[in-house]
Structures are given as C-alpha cells and as structure tokens.
C-alpha cells in the first residue's frame, strides 16, 4: 500500500470520531499545515444559551422540509426539539444558530427517511454475531454507556448492513443512558487489527452517521493497543481539531503504565473486561446478548408508545422512564 493511501485510510479512521467541519479541514491541512486560529469568543451565559435554543426551535418549526415528520411522527419531532436535543446540535456547531438549524433539519429528514427507531434486533442479528460492536454490561465511573468495538471481527462486506447495525447500536446505547447523562464511551480494541479490516466507504458512512446524526453523543473514544503508526498520524490531525474534539480521543497501550492509568481512572477494574486490563473474564456471548437486545427492543417500543413502566416489576421508575424518553432524542 502506497504511503498516501495509507495516510488516507488512517485519517478516515480518525474522522469517524471527529466533527465534520474539522474533518474536511484536517484532511487537506495535514498535507500543508497552517497555524490554527485562536477562538476569542467569550463564554455564553445560561441565558444566552437558552435564547439560542429557543431560536433554533422556533426556526426549525417553520421549515417546510420537516412538515412530514411533524405530521407523521410528532413525538419524534418534539423529542428532537427539546432543550437537551437542540443544545447538542448547538454545541456541535459552536453555538452558531444558523448552522445548528441546518444540522438539525438534515438530521430530522434523515430520521424521517431512515427510520432508525424501527430497526429491531432481528434486522441486524447477523451483523452482531462476531461481537464486532456491542453494548457492554458496565458503564464508566460517570455513568456513561460503553460501546465496545473490535474491527478485527468485521464479518460482512455490505456497507448498508454495517451502518444499519451501527445505527441500531447507537439507538440502543442512548436508550440505556442513565438520567442526566447524554454521552457514551467508545472502547475500540485493536487487537489483531490490520488494514484489511478497513473499508474507506464504510468509514465515510460511519463518520457521516455518527457526526451528523448523533452530535455530542461521544464522551470519549479510547483506542486500545492501536498500531504504533496510528498515533503519529493523529498528532498531525489534532492541531486542526476543536480542542474539545481532540481531547475525546485517548491512546491506551497495555504495556504503558502511564496510558494504562486512563483505564483505572475511568472504570471500575473489577467490572472491566480482561481484554482491556480489567478483572472480568466473561466474554461476549451472542445468545445472551441477543436476549438482552430483544428485551431492549420491547422496552423501546413501549417507551415510544407511552406505556407506563412505573408499575410493579417494571424495569425502571417513572422518573427514570421520563428521562429515558428525553435521552432518546
């Protein structure tokens, strides 16, 4: 593989965990670096933020392009126009109202056409068989859901099916966020990774979905034991990313005590899988995982239909259920 193609592949991998605006700038500027401009904008007050949230919400309501989702999926539209949801789109666009409106509009149209809330386990089970992406049984110390990703276990060639499974995983992770938490952790295991595991088309689609349809959902991406040539290329890209984005990527090596400390600070080591330096020896079991996903599907259907989960033997109390509905936006 020639050097420029190798660089392209690696940069696309980094793109899947960065913002779209930064993504385009970074690719070209790594070839011809320019000094990064400083941002001298004063911090916004809570009042300023609320004013901008209201402005985005009122503006998007007037857009004819989202009339169909307002008519046929009013609950979906309301969820994505909530303060929590609009705030994420604004943060993703550095509190630029015009750009946030455009991003939210595009996202609503995508959801109207793609219908991610209708994807069920039976639709994606074949993609999940190897455990290439799954929601772990543990959270980090801040209560963030952990999505484990293992590129070496890629088992299909269909980009469309791979993206559908990724969307399912994102929707499921959001469903399981605890009250007050909006973000998740991506724990990416590079054991056994090689460049044959990388599809540029799939990576581009992954970047588009994660960045444009699920803004500000990533709390941290941990690259565990990545190939040594990853980090130098990321260092080329990092200066041109927004600091908050760049700080979301952590390189961890099992044989490096300094980076291994990142795991100690983030996780309860008794719960963390042994593959990531923890003490839990249990491995991914597709049968158990399928049962868990089917249960979650039922819960998601009930939540969206307004079923009361606060009755006896329910999975959560009414307050948590209400927060779950907000988190799904």
Structure description:
- By secondary structure, the protein is of the alpha/beta class.
- Helices cover 52% and strands 9% of the residues.
- The protein has helices spanning 3-15, 20-29, 46-61, 67-72, 74-80, 83-92, 97-114, 121-128, 159-175, 200-213, 230-237, 243-246, 257-266, 286-305, 318-327; strands at 133-139, 145-149, 184-189, 218-224, 249-252.
- A five-stranded mixed beta sheet has the order 1-2-3-4-5, with helices on both faces.
- The radius of gyration is 20 Å and the shape is globular.
Write the layout of secondary structure elements.
Layout: H1 3-15, H2 20-29, H3 46-61, H4 67-72, H5 74-80, H6 83-92, H7 97-114, H8 121-128, E1 133-139, E2 145-149, H9 159-175, E3 184-189, H10 200-213, E4 218-224, H11 230-237, H12 243-246, E5 249-252, H13 257-266, H14 286-305, H15 318-327
Parallel strand pairs: 2-3, 3-4, 4-5
Antiparallel strand pairs: 1-2
Helix pairs in contact: 1-2, 1-10, 1-11, 3-6, 3-7, 6-7, 8-9, 8-14, 9-10
């Amino acid at each position: 593989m020639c050097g420029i193609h190798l660089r392209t592949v690696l940069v696309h991998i980094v793109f899947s965990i960065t913002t779209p605006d930064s993504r385009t700038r970074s690719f070209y500027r790594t070839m011809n670096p320019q000094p990064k401009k400083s941002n001298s904008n004063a911090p916004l007050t809570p009042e300023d933020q609320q004013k901008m949230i209201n402005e985005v919400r009122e503006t998007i309501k007037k857009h004819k392009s989202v009339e169909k989702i307002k008519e046929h999926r009013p609950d979906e539209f309301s969820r994505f126009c909530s303060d929590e949801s609009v705030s994420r789109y604004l943060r993703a666009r550095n509190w630029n109202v015009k750009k946030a409106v455009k991003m939210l509009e595009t996202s609503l149209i995508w959801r109207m056409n793609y219908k991610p809330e209708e994807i069920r386990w039976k639709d994606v089970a074949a993609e999940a068989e190897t455990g290439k992406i799954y929601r772990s049984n543990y959270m980090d110390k801040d209560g963030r859901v952990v999505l484990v990703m293992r590129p070496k276990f890629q088992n299909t060639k269909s980009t469309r099916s791979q993206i559908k499974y990724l969307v399912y995983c994102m929707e499921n992770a959001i469903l399981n966020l605890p009250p007050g938490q909006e973000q998740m952790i991506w724990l990416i295991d590079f054991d056994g990774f090689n460049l044959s595991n990388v599809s540029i088309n799939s990576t581009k689609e992954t970047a588009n979905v994660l960045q444009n349809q699920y803004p500000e959902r990533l709390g941290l991406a941990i690259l565990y034991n990545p190939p040594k040539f990853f980090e130098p290329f990321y260092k080329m890209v990092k200066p041109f990313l927004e600091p908050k984005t760049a700080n979301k990527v952590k390189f961890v090596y099992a044989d490096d005590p300094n980076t291994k400390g990142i795991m100690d600070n983030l996780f309860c080591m008794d719960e963390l899988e042994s593959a990531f330096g923890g003490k839990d020896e249990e491995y991914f079991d597709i049968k158990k995982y399928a049962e868990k996903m089917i249960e979650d599907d039922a819960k998601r259907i009930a939540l969206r239909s307004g079923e009361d989960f606060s009755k006896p033997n329910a999975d959560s109390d009414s307050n948590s259920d209400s927060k779950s509905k907000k988190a799904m936006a």
